[in-house]
Amino acid sequence: MAIQNTLSTLMRPHRPLTVVLIGTSLDEESDTVVRAGLAIARAAGARVHLVHAVRIEPILVHAEAGMGRDLAQEQIAWREKELRRQVERVGIAASELAGCAVLAGAPHRLLTDTAGTVGAGLIAIGTTRSGPLAAELMGSTADRVLRKASCPVLLVRGELAVPPRRVLAPVDLGSLSGDAFRCGLSLLTQIAKGEEVAVRVVHAVSFLDTLAVHHQTPGGISAEQVERLAAEELRRFVLENRAEAPFRMDSAVLAGEARFEILHDLEGNPADLVVLGTHGRGGLDRMMLGSVASTVARKAPCSVLLIAPEATLEQGIADAVTVQTEPAWHREAAAVGV
Fold first, then answer.
1. CB of 80 within 8 A of CB of 102?
2. Which residues touch 217 (CB under 8 Å, ≥6 apart)?
3. Which residues does residue 22 pair with via DSSP β-bridges, in sequence order?
4. What separation in angstroms does the CA of 48 have from each of 15, 118, 270?
């Protein structure tokens, strides 16, 4: 039984990557994030737009001090100088720079709004735990960017090989997962430029999945049979969604809870990048990342490319759509009575 993509008529074409928006904390540790975003832009023939977004409370010096200056403006001016220094330090040519700005306000809102304004096809932010803005970038800001962004978000962790040679792509076999998988492959194709990339596609089957299929199947079904069905459906999923992606792909079914098995798989099969949809298995949820995406984003030892449903749908449609994402092999097992 082939997987049917119920959102196919709403899919937006995977447009060429022309702008990569990079969120920077200005310090030398954030140079890693800037270099990763720049390398991706160069590989895809795109330009970069740097944004330093920060909350600054306006403080006016008392007139008797003889200064009478708005210290908030002074802080912004200093940060603009630091941003220019970072551009020079990383070696971004004028022709590669679509823009750079220091913006005062809620970082997650400024990053996502600016990405929409400049037509960014990717947002790159850091996950480092040190530095002046690290707590925000790793915590609430990163989470909010992932919820709000209408384009893929790259969480950079350490030096990122561009193109990444080894990619892990966890999927849940639903329509939204297929959309995210195709979107991720499209981005990889644009930056690979014919170089060899190996993609490992995995699907986790939990104890509850196995139990549900067992109860839905007349006469019951063993865990081994469930895994075989899942492996067949995973192969179909890859064939139907890989399109013309010129990558070597293999697939594997993982037995256990997805968020833990993905991390465990990374221990035995190290990857340069994880590509993962942010939807939960129940469909679209603007208020909360799927628990799998949230856990992998925080604990993966490598960079993670997270793709929200909005990254593959026309603007605004995703907010009004609820999708049934039950893996097809659940229904198939019950239907054939395996």
1. yes
2. 333, 334, 337, 338
3. 50, 124
4. 16, 10, 29
* pLDDT, average across residues 253-272: 95
138: pLDDT strictly greater than 50: no
Please tell me the distance from the alpha carbon of residue 333 to that of residue 318, in angstroms, as a whole number. 30
Q: CA quadruple 202, 207, 210, 213: dihedral positive or negative?
A: negative
209 pLDDT above the threshold of 80 = no
Tokens of 151: 């384009």
Amino acid at 40: I
Where does 193-324 have alpha helices with state H?
Answer: 207-216, 223-241, 258-268, 291-299
What torsion do the CA atoms of 280, 284, 287, 293 make, to the nearest 10 degrees?
Answer: 30
> pLDDT digits over 179-201, tens only?
999 999 999 999 998 899 999 99
129 class by beta-carbon count within 10 Å (0-12 exposed, 13-18 middle, 19+ buried): exposed
**CB 262 within 8 Å of CB 206:** no
Identify the structural domains of the chain with CATH numbers, from first to last: 16-157 (3.40.50.620), 161-338 (3.40.50.620)
Q: What is d(CA 143, CA 288) in angstroms, rounded to the nearest whole number?
A: 9
